[in-house]
Amino acid sequence: MQVYKAPIKDYQFLIKDFLNSGSLDSVFENSDLNIDDLSMILEEAAKLCEETLLPINQIGDMEGCSFNQGNVKTPKGFKEAYKKFVENGWQGLTVSKKYGGQQLPYFVNMFLDEMISSSNMSFGLYPGLTSNAIDAIEKSASEEIKNLYLPKLSTGEWSGTMNLTEPQCGTDLGLSKTIAHPQKDGSYKISGTKIFITCGEHDMSENIIHLVLAKTPNAPEGIKGISLFIVPKIIPNSDGSLGKKNSLECGSIEKKMGINASPTCVMHYNEARGWLVGDLHKGMKAMFVMMNGARLMVGVQGLGIAEIAYQSSLHYANERLQGRALNGSKHLDKVADPIIVHPEIRKNLLKVKTLTEGLRGLMVWTGLQVDIANLEKDKFKKQRAEDWVALMTPILKSFSTDVGCEAANIGVQIYGGHGYIKDHGMEQLLRDSRIAPIYEGTNGIQALDLVGRKMPMHTGRLLKSFFHEVKDYLEKNSFNYNLKEYIPHLTKSFGRLQQVTTFLASKGLSNPDEAAGASVDYLKMFSLVAIGYIWTRYAEISYNKLNDDPENFYKAKIASGNYYMTKILPETGSLMASILSGAKYYNDYENKYFDLAFKI
Amino acid sequence: MKILVAVKRVIDYNVQIRVKADGSGVETENVKMSMNPPDENAVEEALRVKESGKANEVVIVSIGEEKSKETIRTALAMGADRGIFVKSNSNIEPICVAKALKKIVDTEKPDLVFMGKQAIDDDCNQTGQMLSALLGWSQGTFASKIELNENEISITREIDEGLEMLKLKLPSIITCDLRLNEPRYASLPNIMKAKKKPIQDLNIEDLEVDTAPRINFLKVEEPPKREKGIMVNSIEELVSKLKNEAKVI
Question: Which residues of chain B, if any, have pLDDT below 50?
C-alpha cells in the first residue's frame, strides 16, 4: 500500500535549524516572506499532494496515457488534478513576479517537488517540464518572447517541453539532424523528428510550448552549430490569445517500464514555425543553463521516491505479523511479531531513512546555494556558492536517483510476495524510479562530469568549496565532546576521499580511461562523505536541542546519524580499495574474452 | 452584504488524541492543530456567496490563544477579507463564546453568521444556537445546502427523519455540515496575499463577557481498553451471558 504523509517536521527542522545556520536571512532580505510563512506554504502544498495526487498515482500507472490520431489522453483524474494544481498557483512558485509568479526562493521549490515526486512522480513531470521551459526562456530569450510566453506558462495555462533527443542522437547532441530555415520575418521553419519528448502532447493545457534544438543551414558541425527555438503547438497572437495551429504533431507515444501516466512522445516538426531563443549557434549554452536546474530536480525525484518507499515499507513492517523476534517475542498478545523486530528489516529501513534524510539536507543546502548565487552581491560569496552548486549537481543527480531505486527495491523486498504483485503499488515505485538514473544525462555521464570536468575546473577550485568547508569543520569540532561518535568516522572517510581524489587527479592527466573507469565509484564515495558531513552537522544541532525535545525528534536524529556513520559511511573503505586497484583488469581485458562462453 | 464566519482552532482530525497523565485535559503541546473541519465548510460557503456577487465582505473571527491567529490566517489565505482575533488564554464554554460573538456582531453588524455545526474537540454543538437566541436572529443548523435570496435564505438540513428544508429571514445564523461543500485549498498567491490582510486584535476582557465556567470540570480519562472477546458455543449461551453477565437484555 502506497503510504505517504509529507515529512513536514523534517522540512521544518531543515529550514529552522539546519539552513538557518547558513545565510538564510540574505535569501529573505528582499522578499516579503519570512521563515514562518514557509510552514503554511508547505502544509498547503502537502494537502494537495496527499489528498489529490497520491490517490491517482496507482490509477495513472494502471491506466496509462492513450494515443489516438495525434491526440494523447491522460489517465482518469489527471486533468482535474492538474486544474487544481495550477489554479492554486504552484506552477509560479519561483517564477519572477514580473511574469506573474511568486518569486520564492529556489530551495522552497525543492520541498514542493519532493512532495509531488513522492505522491505522483508521473504527474510531477508535466509541471516539471514547464518549469524547465520557463527557466530556459527566462534566462535566454528576448523580452518579446518572455512577455508573450512566460505569463501563461507561469500560471500553467500553457505547458512546456524540452526537445533534445533524436533517433540517432541522445547523449551526443552534435549529431542532430533537425533543421531550422530562416524566414524573412525573422522566424524559422523547423523540420525534423524528436523522440523521448516528455509530455510532448496531452489534454491538460490549452497550449504546449516546445523548446527545440535544431541547426540552421550551413551551421558549424557538431554541437557548436546547435541553436534553440521556441515552437508553440498553437501559435499565439501578440495579445497572448490562441491563433493558428502550428504544423507539428505527435506521431506516437512509447510503451514504457514506468512513469506510465506521463506520455513520452515522438514529435514530428514539418516546417513548423519557430523563433530563436538566445543567440544563434548558442543553443547548448541556453540548454545547459536550464539543464543544471533540471538535474537537481531529477535528484529530488529520487529523494521523493525514496521517501514514499520508506513510509510504505515502514507501514508494512509494523503491520505484517510473521515469526517471532530471535531474542524473545515482543508481542505475545499477537499471533506473531511484526516483521520490524527482525534485524534485516530494521537495517533496511534505517538504510533508506538515513540516506534519505541525509540527502535531503545536502539537497536543500545546495538549493540554498543556488539562491545565494542568484542574490549575493559579494563576489567571493557568490562564487563560492556557484562552485558548490556546480560540484554537487552531478553528485545529487546521480546518488539521489540511485538511492531512489535502492529504496524502492528494498520496499519490494520488505513486502515480499506482496511487493511483487501489483496491488500494493510497491513494484510501481520500483518501475517509476528506474528512469531517474537514465534521463537528464545518465548517472554514468554525471560521474564523468564530476571527474572529467568539475574536478579539474579552475585548477580544483570547485573541489575546494567542499574540501575546505569539511576540513575547517573537522578542525573546529575535533574536541567537540558531543560529536565523539561522529567526528572520528567523518575524519576517516574524509581522509579516504582526499587520498582517492589525489590519486584520480594524477591518473586523470596520464590516463583518462583510468579516471573515467573509477568515476562512478568515486562519485558514490564523494556522496557518502558529503552525507556523513550533513549527518554530523545534524547531530551538532540536535545535541544543543536535547533539553527542549518533547517529541524526541532531536534524540531520534542523533540515533539515526549513529546508524549512518557506523553502517553506511564505512562503504567508503571498499570503494577506495576498488579505485586504488586501478584500471588494469578491465582496460586490458580482451574484448574477445567477453563472449567465449557462448560463441559458436 | 457582510458575512461573519466564526472559526475554531482544534487538534487536527488526523491526530491520535492523548490524555494528559494528570487527567487535566488532552495533550495539545506539539500536536498538529488545524481549523475545525466544519468551520472550513463555513468559510468555503461564505467565499462562494461572495464570489457569486451576493456578498461583498467575509470577516473571520476566532477566539482562543495566540496561535488561533494562524487559523484566521488560513481562512484569509482561502480568500476571506479580514480577521478579528479575540485572545483568551483559558478554555471558555460555548455560552461565553456565544456572548463574545454577540458583542462582535453588535459592532460588525453582519447580515449572516456562518460557523461549523460543532467543533470536533468538545463536540458541544451549542454556540450557533445560543448566539441565535442572544441576538434574536433566525437559525439554520446542520446546513447541507444553502440558497441565498434577497432577504431570505433557504437551507437544507439533515435531521433524523431525512432532509428538512427551511426558509429563514435575514439576519440569520447558519451552522454548517461537512456535506455542505468541499473546502478549497489555499492557493499560493492567496497565501502570499493573506500576509497583508488585516487582523484586528482584541482581548476577551475588552468584550466584557463573563467567562467564569458554569460547568464543574472533574477530570479527563481514556476510555477503558477493550478486553479480549470469547467464543460462545450456542445461541443459548450467548443469550444467557447477555442476560446474566452483561445484563444488557
Answer: none
Domain-embedded: residue B172: yes
CB-nearest partner of B188 from A47, A90, A551: A90
Look at chain B and report how many structural domains it folds into: 1
CATH number at residue B211: 3.40.50.620
> In angstroms, rounded to a whole number, what is the distance separating the alpha carbons of residues A105 and A292?
16
Identify the active-site residue in A114, A440, A514, A540. Answer: A440
Cell numbers placing A440? 537528464
> What ipTM did this prediction achieve?
0.87
Residue A127 has pLDDT above 90, yes or no: yes
Query: Which residues make beta-bridge pairs with A252?
Result: A266
Query: Does the residue B249 lie in any domain?
Result: no
pTM (predicted TM-score): 0.92
- Residues of chain A with Cβ-Cβ distance to B226 below 8 Å are none
Do A88 and B185 count as a contact with CB atoms less than 8 A apart? yes
Amino acid, res. B19: V
Answer whether B185 sits within 8 Å of A48, measured CB to CB.
Answer: yes
Phi-psi region of A278 (alpha: psi -120 to 50; beta: other; left: phi over 0): left
Look at B195 and A37 and tell me if their CB atoms are within 8 Å: yes
Residue A64 contacts residue A73 (beta carbons within 8 Å): no
Which of B13, B35, B188 to probe the A interface (max A CBs under 10 A)?
Answer: B188
| Contact residues for A52 (Cβ-Cβ < 8 A; gap 6+) | A81, A84, A85
**CA–CA distance from B204 to each of B8, B64, B167 (Å)?**
15, 9, 34
Residue B107 domain boundaries: 2-244
- The β-bridge partners of A301 are none
A440 is catalytic: yes
